[in-house]
From TrEMBL:
UniProt keyword Hydrolase, yes or no: yes
Organism: Spongiivirga citrea
GO MF term (any one): hydrolase activity
Domain Metallo-beta-lactamase: 46-224
Keyword Hydrolase: yes
Entry protein name: MBL fold metallo-hydrolase
Keywords: Hydrolase
SUPFAM superfamilies hit by this protein: Metallo-hydrolase/oxidoreductase (SSF56281)
């Protein structure tokens, strides 16, 4: 399995528009972060988790010509705003499968009504095949995918386990029963927004404590804001098996 970090930034990305914060002015390419997303590939299949407002740029950078579907964690703008940009895939491949919690599908219907209006469909609109996800395993091309229910403040959202790889973003709390789904991981990806506590995301201390409890072989931090600090400085302070993800990083599981 191959995982590509398409974006590792928080909702505003880094640099933030107009910001003079030192991290936003950094010349290190690893400090420039698009909105958070990963691409997961196994055998000849390729799925993207979330498609935010940088989706088009991410697909061009990664030179992606086809995808087999998009899996959504939740409905916030930095995770769904790029849905219209699936059109090139739809025009080449046909209707694109999407996978999401019922509440997320309803939010997509509201935000992208022209995509889902079958009676008055704009001929140039993208077309999707909806697949509702529940808090139970489902199969994508012979691979079992396990949703992991977490809380983003009070909002219930999904992370996902693909084999020995798990991807969690926007986590603030997670119940013990859901933590059990994360045993014996090769790789865990989890959010670490900043140093200071935040009401709806893990900060660095919380993320590292969570990683210690789950005990994967390797862990990568994502959904990072400029307030976490410079990539090179933060990476140097992390435990031996924990790494700071950055855009376009590819790992093999």
């Amino acid at each position: 399995m191959k995982v590509t970090f398409l974006g590792t930034g928080t909702s505003q990305g880094i640099p933030i528009i107009g910001s003079t914060h030192p991290v936003c002015l950094s010349d290190d390419s690893r400090d420039k972060r698009l909105r958070v997303s990963v691409m997961v590939e196994w055998d000849n299949y390729r799925y993207v988790v979330d498609c935010g407002p940088d989706f088009r740029q991410q697909m061009l950078t990664a030179q992606v010509r086809n995808i087999d579907g998009i899996i959504f964690t939740h409905e916030h703008s930095d995770h769904v705003a790029g849905l219209d940009d699936i059109r090139p895939f739809v025009f080449r491949q046909g209707d694109l499968p999407i996978y999401a919690y019922d509440r997320v599908l309803k939010a997509l219907h509201k935000r992208f009504d022209y995509v889902f209006d079958e009676e008055n469909r704009y001929p140039g609109a993208p077309a999707v095949v909806e697949n509702e996800i529940f808090n139970e395993p489902f199969v994508l091309n012979e691979l079992k995918v396990i949703p992991v229910l977490v809380k983003h403040a009070s909002l219930t959202i999904f992370g996902y386990r693909f084999g020995d790889f798990a991807y969690l973003t926007d986590v603030k709390t997670i119940d013990p029963v859901e933590r059990e789904k994360l045993k014996d991981l090769d790789v865990l990806v989890v959010n670490a927004l900043r140093i200071e506590p935040h009401p709806s995301h893990f900060n660095l201390e919380e993320a590292l404590q969570f990683i210690k409890e789950i005990n994967p072989k390797r862990a990568y931090l994502t959904h990072i804001s400029h307030l976490l600090g410079f990539h090179v400085e933060v990476e140097a302070q992390l435990p031996e098996n924990v790494f700071l993800a950055y855009d376009n990083l590819t790992i093999t599981i």
